[in-house]
C-alpha cells in the first residue's frame, strides 16, 4: 500500500495557548469527515507534508499542528533566549485539548509515532471521552529505562558504535560521566559557536537510527536544528515529565478505546520491549511487531498496517 495522495490544508492558523505561546495548526481532507489528529515525534520534530497522507482525505478531517516551540509555532526554541519552562508533557496535553475545542471537534482519532505515542497515550488518559481510537507507531513509554537506552554505552551504542563515538567525542573526557548534562550546557549556551555544533552532534546521534537500513540525515538549518535539539534534550533531561513508571499505570482509563500498536522488530530508537510492555498491560489493543522494519513508519510492513488501521477506523 502507498500513502494516500498528497493534500494541501484548507485552513490554517495560530492558536494562543498561554505563556506567550502560539501553536501553528492546519486542517486538510474532508471538512465534514471523521476528525483525526496527528501527533508528531521528537519531541520537537515538527510537521512534514507527508504526515497528512496517513489518512484518506475523502473520509477524514485531518488536524495537524506543530507542538510548542518547534516548526511554525511561536516562539521557536531555535532562539536560545526562548525559555522552555512552559514546555512539558502536561502543557502539550492541554494544548491538544485546547486545539480540539478551538476547532469544534467533539471526539477524534489520535495518531502518534515515537514521541507522538507518548503524547497520544498521555492525552487519551487525561481525556478518554474525547478519543475514538488510537493508532500508535514506535512506542515510547517515557520510563527511566526508556529515556536512558539511547544515552548510555550499554544501550543503542552497541549497535551504532561509530555514531556513539562521534557523539561522545564532542564532550571532553572529564564531563562524560554526565553526557546529558554536558550537552545541555552547550545546547543552551547563547553563543552560536557553542550551541550549533553541540546541537548538530546531539541530533546526528538522535537521528542515526531512524530506519532499518541507513538513510542520509536530514539537512536541517541551524535554527530548526537547535529547536529540535533543545526540546528533545529538555524532555530527556526531565524524564519526559512523567512518573518513573511512565504511562502504563493509566491504561485502565483507556482500555475501552479501540487501538492499534505497531513497532518494528529492529527499532533501535524505541525497542520492541516498550511496545510489548504496553501490549501486556493492554491486551485488548491490536498488537503488531513488524519483522522487517526499524523505527520509521514508512517502511512497507509498518506503513501497510498503519494505513489499514486508519482505513478501518474510518
Automatic annotation (TrEMBL):
InterPro entries associated with the record: AB_hydrolase_1, AB_hydrolase_fold, Peptidase_S33, Pro_iminopeptidase
Its EC number(s): 3.4.11.5
Claim: Transcription regulation is one of the keywords in the record: no
Reaction catalysis annotation: Release of N-terminal proline from a peptide
Leading EC class: hydrolase
Gene3D superfamilies: alpha/beta hydrolase
Domain AB hydrolase-1 residue range list: 37-295
Subcellular location: Cytoplasm
Keyword Hydrolase annotated: yes
Protein keywords: Aminopeptidase, Cytoplasm, Hydrolase, Protease
Major subcellular site: cytoplasm
Protein family membership: Belongs to the peptidase S33 family.
Name of the molecule in the record: Proline iminopeptidase
Amino acid at each position: 500500500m502507498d500513502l494516500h495522495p498528497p493534500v494541501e490544508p484548507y485552513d490554517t492558523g495560530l492558536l494562543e495557548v498561554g505563556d506567550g505561546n502560539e501553536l501553528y495548526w492546519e486542517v486538510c481532507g474532508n471538512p465534514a469527515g471523521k476528525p483525526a489528529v496527528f501527533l508528531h515525534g521528537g519531541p520537537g520534530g515538527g510537521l512534514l507534508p507527508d504526515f497528512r497522507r496517513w489518512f484518506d482525505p475523502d473520509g477524514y478531517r485531518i488536524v495537524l499542528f506543530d507542538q510548542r516551540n518547534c516548526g511554525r509555532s511561536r516562539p521557536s526554541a531555535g532562539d536560545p533566549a526562548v525559555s522552555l519552562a512552559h514546555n512539558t508533557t502536561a502543557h502539550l496535553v492541554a494544548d491538544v485539548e485546547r486545539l480540539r475545542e478551538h476547532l469544534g471537534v467533539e471526539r477524534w482519532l489520535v495518531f502518534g509515532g515515537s514521541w507522538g505515542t507518548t503524547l497520544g497515550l498521555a492525552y487519551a488518559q487525561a481525556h478518554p471521552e474525547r478519543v475514538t481510537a488510537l493508532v500508535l507507531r514506535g512506542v515510547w513509554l517515557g520510563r527511566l529505562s526508556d529515556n536512558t537506552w539511547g544515552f548510555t554505552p550499554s544501550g543503542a551504542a552497541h549497535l551504532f558504535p561509530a555514531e556513539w563515538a562521534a557523539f561522545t567525542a564532542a564532550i571532553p573526557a572529564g564531563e562524560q560521566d554526565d553526557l546529558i548534562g554536558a550537552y545541555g550546557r552547550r545546547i543552551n549556551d547563547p553563543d552560536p559557536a557553542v550551541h550549533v555544533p553541540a546541537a548538530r552532534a546531539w541530533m546526528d546521534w538522535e537521528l542515526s537510527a531512524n530506519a532499518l537500513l541507513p538513510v542520509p540525515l536530514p539537512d536541517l538549518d541551524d535554527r530548526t536544528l537547535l529547536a529540535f535539539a533543545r526540546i528533545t534534550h529538555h524532555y530527556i533531561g526531565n524524564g519526559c515529565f512523567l512518573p518513573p513508571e511512565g504511562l502504563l499505570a493509566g491504561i485502565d482509563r483507556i482500555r475501552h478505546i479501540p487501538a492499534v500498536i505497531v513497532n518494528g522488530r529492529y527499532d533501535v530508537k524505541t525497542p520492541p520491549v516498550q511496545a510489548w510492555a504496553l501490549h501486556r498491560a493492554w491486551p485488548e489493543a491490536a498488537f503488531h511487531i513488524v519483522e522487517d522494519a526499524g523505527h520509521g513508519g514508512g517502511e512497507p510492513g509498518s506503513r501497510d498496517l498503519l494505513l489499514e488501521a486508519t482505513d478501518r477506523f474510518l
